[in-house]
Amino acid sequence: MLSLPFDGGPQARDKPQPLIGAQNAVGLVRDTAQIVEHQLLGARAHGPIVPEEKTVMGAKCGSTVWRVSESGLRADGDGFSAWLRGRSDAELTTLLAVRPDLVSPAPTGVDVLASRATKRLSLERALDDLDQFALHVLDALAGRPEPTTASRLQKMLAVPSDPLHCCLTALRARALTWETCADIHLAPGLRAAIGEPTPGDGQGRAAPEPPPLRGIPNGSREVNQAAADAALSALRATAGMLSRWGVAPVPVLKSGGLGIRELRKAAASVDVDLRAATLYTEVARAAGLLAASGWTGGEWLPSRAFDAWRDTAAADQWAALASAWLAMTRVPALVGARDEHGGLRGALGAGLDRVDAPRVRSWVLGQLATVPPGESVSVQAVLRRLAWRWPRGQHQLQAMLAKTAMAEAAQLGLTGLGALSAPGRALVLDGLPAAAAALAGILPEPVDYVVLQADMTAVAPGPLGAGLDRELTVAADVESTGGATVYRFSADSVRRALDAGRSGEGLLEFLQQRSRTPVPQPLRYLIEDVARRHGQVRVGGASSYIRSEDAAVLAEIAADRRAAALRLRLLAPTVLVSLADRGDVIGVLRKLGYSPAAESADGAVEIITVARRAEDRSGRHAPTARQAVRSARAPWPVEQRALAAVRVLRAADR
Predict the structure, then answer these.
(1) 321: how many CB neighbours lie within 10 A of its CB?
(2) What span, in angstroms and rounded, lies between the C-alpha atoms of 595 and 29?
């Protein structure tokens, strides 16, 4: 016999009830568990359990049992889940691609997908991605009793059938509406997400087409010439700044990023303003050409990919920068603005990422591509179309991203004089290889010579070849740009070339070979004088030294193979230096049988306690926090991720 309590009130819960047969009790427990399991599953997937209404002889009656699908979840009475289950794999892939929040995590069945697609937050995200006309159509549907037809909706809105048909197709692809025969239904929960519909017949409240982009004719030749000049300037400035940092690395700030003073110096050295230098620096990092050696005591250095990038053609270099700019989420225009804590945002630092930036950049270029070649479009016209495209998400940030996208596209050569250039149009319509080929067609032929002048300058009458540009960028600073680029030699620039491994004789010989004029005497004297004084005083690094009056003892220590880990170097007969710290040197020498004594900075014997030595060694040997430099990886395309999710969904239903 088994005693089971039942819910008979507060008093009944406190004491056992009469006993029943064991067989009946087991059956009751099993039936109760199944009912509770179905109720819990239904509550998780679809909210509170409401009895299903059935129609018998024209009258509605209630039922205490829900219809359950094959997957064990409740089947919706409104037919939305059944409609969604009838979609093809291509249609479901499109749905998950346009509503990516439904993919994370991948739904384990159509019923789960239907439940997730009708959640309030997911519906609001889908509404935020609709244009003004689509929202107007949904507003009209929400103001009418369901279901309705496309013909009634067209008559009510008084719009042409073609744009309405395209809009309804897009809404159905997003699962915001669904159809049975010719009837149109709103997705469950969408009426509450839309809110109170606007009263009236709906005429004239939203145009089915976006505002026009009225262009100003400029001529394709002029547009392409301006874009080519901007592209060459971007390539020259990027290569110049990174080459400068390769010879003289700049430190990583404690808060991360690049110091404004170092960025100003680099901008002045390549003759660009601070905003352009910030853009080129951020794009170079996004393209994998610039990286930090570490975030604690690290330096900003050009990567190995930069050397390969310098050896490619100018059009391919530009294509790498353009693709990195389109894909990166960082917004260089935010540099110098205050963050939420009142601090200034710095280049290459934190706080510059905006997830909408790539989408807005692609959208802006796509809108410019709708205008005939050679026609300029104003920023105000683009912003008016932006307000029509994303009315729910239209705010100050998106407007700023659109303005920034147009300015940065002009600085990178994607546009010229406010119009989309030939390489920019090819990038939008045909892809990256076509854009590189289009740029190669409008770039001037590179030259392999310069003209040296007596005022310590070298004039490049056109874009230089990769090898000549690399050498000249190291040995001279850019003074002015335009139709011809002027480089100026100085003691600092010549010293920079010598620090990079060039010699005075080699530099003079190189200039003599690449110049159409002889090397001027003032420039020759400058190079020879700097080369003669270069390296007279040398500075190296050492963590400790070993000093002894007996030169033979030091020679013996230096020759001992067991001390090779100390990396000893004999500076004088009585002085050895080591890259190891003092504690390690003392420990190794004691293992070798010597009795070293520690020496203080003033030359006196220093008494080191065990606690002090342990503290020093633990501090010097503490692991340094460093961040690994991650190579730029292309994100998993949305379409492939959606297709994989559909495969999981179908497998779960099977």
Answers:
(1) 23
(2) 84
Sign of the four-CA dihedral 264, 270, 273, 277 = negative
What digits encode the pLDDT tens for the residues 282-334?
A: 999 999 999 988 777 788 999 999 989 988 889 999 999 999 999 999 999 99
> In a 10 Å sphere around its CB, with 0-12 CB exposed, 13-18 middle and 19+ buried, how is residue 214 labelled?
exposed
Strand pairing partners for 485?
Answer: 460
Question: Residues 73, 111: contact at Cβ < 8 Å?
Answer: yes
Q: How far apart are CA 546 and CA 319, in angstroms?
A: 55
Query: 């829900």: which residue's tokens?
Result: 66
Cβ atoms 434, 452 nearer than 8 A:
no
The pLDDT score that the predictor gives to residue 18 is 37
Measured CA to CA, the distance from residue 489 to residue 559 in angstroms comes to 47
Could you tell me the sign of the dihedral formed by the alpha carbons of 474, 475, 477, 482, in that order?
negative
Query: What's the pLDDT score for residue 413?
Result: 95
Structure tokens given for 94: 């499109």
State how far the Cα of 506 lies from the Cα of 512, in Å rounded to an integer: 10
Read off the tokens for 467: 């090898």
Parallel, antiparallel, or unpaired for β 575-578 and 544-547? Answer: antiparallel
Contact 566, 578 (CB under 8 A): yes
Backbone angles phi, psi at 351, to 5 degrees: 90, 10
**2: its two tokens:** 């088994």
Q: List the helix and strand counts (H, then E) for the chain.
A: 28, 18
23-43 in b/e form (b: 16+ CB < 10 A) is eeeeeeeeeeeeeeebeebbe
Rounded (10°) CA dihedral 586, 590, 594, 599:
20
Q: Are 181 and 133 in contact (CB under 8 A)?
A: no
For residue 82, give Cα distances in angstroms to 74, 110, 299, 536: 11, 9, 59, 85
Alpha-carbon gap, residue 322 to 270, rounded angstroms = 20
For residue 584, give the H/E element and its range. Answer: helix 582-591
The pTM of the whole model exceeds 0.70 = no
- The residues near 43 (Cβ < 8 Å, ≥ 6 apart) are 49
Pairing of strands 457-460, 485-488: antiparallel
- Of the candidates 144, 141, 134, which has an alpha carbon nearest to the alpha carbon of residue 165? 134
Shortest CA distance to 77 belongs to which of 69, 184, 36, 124? 69
Distance CA 631, CA 58 (A): 67
Cis peptide upstream of residue 433 (ω within 30 degrees of 0): no
